[in-house]
Specification:
Length: about 110
Amino acid sequence: MKYIVAIIQPDRLDDVLDILEQKEIHLVTVTNVMGRGRQKGISEVYRSHKEGGSLLKKVKVEVAVNEEYVQPTVEAIQTAARTGNVGDGKIFVLDLGQVIRIRTGETGRMAIG
């Protein structure tokens, strides 16, 4: 079992969700977040002074999947989120130690679905 976390551009979210749906990956959590990467935000001029970079709006997509869905999930997110520009985001793949479905008490692979 793996936990996949992707930080992407907000305008790419619909495309990512569409392609995940096509690959039958339905269990997704989405959160609006703020952050910065190598570009260190965007500098702005305010009252004739250049202000340092600030945090940028991003979207965090989280998906828990069984092993056979890891590669399709990563490929789907990469394909839909990539623009080729700086700031496209990152995908993190983490080991998932345990999953419990609250309603039924199922654990492991069965709890993910």
